[in-house]
Write a structure and sequence with these properties.
Elements (H helix, E strand, L loop, with lengths): L15 H17 L1 H13 L8 H6 L4
């Protein structure tokens, strides 16, 4: 068995400092695209044609 290069271990063992950058990036992206995200969610809610839109971010998270 060889050593896996670049493997940092389980994500739940990441230090608090390791979570800081992803949290800051997520909040920054949320503030930047707030108006667009709000418009999309309103469209999903208002139109029966787009009611499946809530599932798209969840499904796309599993696509490699």
């Amino acid at each position: 068995m060889g050593v896996i290069v670049g493997y940092a271990g389980p994500i739940w063992r990441t230090s608090r400092r390791g979570w800081l950058l992803p949290i800051i990036m997520g909040v920054s992206i949320g503030f930047t695209f707030y108006d667009g995200i709000e418009a999309i969610i309103r469209q999903w809610y208002a139109s029966e044609e787009y009611s499946h839109g809530y599932l798209i971010p969840l499904i796309s998270g599993f696509i490699p």
